[in-house]
Amino acid sequence: MAAFVIDGKVIAAKVRADVAADVARLKEQHGFVPGLAVVLVGEDPASKVYVRNKAQQTVECGMQSFEFKLAEDTPEEEVLELVRKLNADPAVNGILVQMPLPKHMDSNKVLELIDPLKDVDGFHPMNVGRLSIGERALAPCTPVGSVILARSFKDDLSGLNAVVVGRSNIVGKPMAQLLLRENCTVTIAHSRTKDLPDVVREADLVVAAIGKPEFVKGGWIKPGAIVIDVGINRVLKEDGKGKIVGDVEYAAAAQVAGAITPVPGGVGPMTIACLLKNTVEAALMQRGLMRA
Ligand SMILES: Nc1nc(=O)c2c([nH]1)NC[C@@H]1CN(c3ccc(C(=O)N[C@@H](CCC(=O)O)C(=O)O)cc3)C=[N+]21
């Protein structure tokens, strides 16, 4: 039977509607509008589109958007100075510095300067650590969105064998932490994993975050498994035109999986929705209005 297709666009729209409702309430009850600052260094065309979408959706949810576009050859110190300024600005509740940064910059140095309470990407070591010890933390948007997508199909993930393919700091590792929190039995597989297809075959939940087009084959998927595809790869079709594919061989996997996220229209839209959600959480934390 063909897999259920988990519609990331629909679920992202629901997350954004919740964010908009929270923002409206903050405005009404506290006279305050959350703000998100996005810093883009350089001219990467894909990054520019993504930053534009973020700014537009931030405003649609009733929040303030601050955009900073710096030239590729901006000195590192200038980016650090901007982060310091945003840290000190009470109108800015969330700060996102678009990755990757130009090669002449030390990304970790920039990320570690961001106030952990404004770190809506959840990349600061303080948030990474707090997530791993189960404290309240801002968690990375893509993994948070991926859990919401999986739970939209099966609310209780407890006891599932989850295999995360990929061990990056922005997806694989935080994904594993969040799935542990959902009481999954978690395996992190990667490029050096032995017998990877057999490891994936054991998974009730597969998260593919490798960054290689259609790397995970349909034949690796356990019948009925939930497949979350984090990959966004631009490839050329036979007719020479470009298209976007995930890290999973979608057509084949969709024949065996119980549920699968498409690319585009799966995890991508959730990443932005969860960024907006994190911005509201950050604003609540900064103002001591935290939800229980
Ligand atoms: N500090 C930082 N935080 C990030 O979260 C971050 C980043 N840097 N650098 C770049 C990546 C990439 N990223 C995407 C988010 C949404 C879509 C998205 O909405 N994709 C749509 C459209 C795809 C398309 O048509 O291009 C989809 O998958 O359906 C894509 C890519 C966030 N990133």
UniProtKB/TrEMBL annotation:
GO terms for molecular function: methenyltetrahydrofolate cyclohydrolase activity; methylenetetrahydrofolate dehydrogenase (NADP+) activity. Pathway: One-carbon metabolism; tetrahydrofolate interconversion. The keyword NAD does not apply. Residues 140-285 form the Tetrahydrofolate dehydrogenase/cyclohydrolase NAD(P)-binding domain. GO terms for cellular component: cytosol. One of its GO terms (biological process) is methionine biosynthetic process. NADP(+) binds at G166, R167, S168, I232. Gene3D superfamilies: Leucine Dehydrogenase, chain A, domain 1, NAD(P)-binding Rossmann-like Domain. Residues 6-121 form the Tetrahydrofolate dehydrogenase/cyclohydrolase catalytic domain. It catalyses: (6R)-5,10-methylene-5,6,7,8-tetrahydrofolate + NADP(+) = (6R)-5,10-methenyltetrahydrofolate + NADPH; (6R)-5,10-methenyltetrahydrofolate + H2O = (6R)-10-formyltetrahydrofolate + H(+). Keywords: Amino-acid biosynthesis, Histidine biosynthesis, Hydrolase, Methionine biosynthesis, Multifunctional enzyme, NADP, One-carbon metabolism, Oxidoreductase, Purine biosynthesis. Its EC number is 1.5.1.5, 3.5.4.9. CDD domains: NAD_bind_m-THF_DH_Cyclohyd. Pfam families: THF_DHG_CYH (PF00763), THF_DHG_CYH_C (PF02882). Belongs to the tetrahydrofolate dehydrogenase/cyclohydrolase family. Catalyzes the oxidation of 5,10-methylenetetrahydrofolate to 5,10-methenyltetrahydrofolate and then the hydrolysis of 5,10-methenyltetrahydrofolate to 10-formyltetrahydrofolate. PANTHER family: C-1-TETRAHYDROFOLATE SYNTHASE, CYTOPLASMIC (PTHR48099:SF5), C-1-TETRAHYDROFOLATE SYNTHASE, CYTOPLASMIC-RELATED (PTHR48099). Homodimer. This is Bifunctional protein FolD.
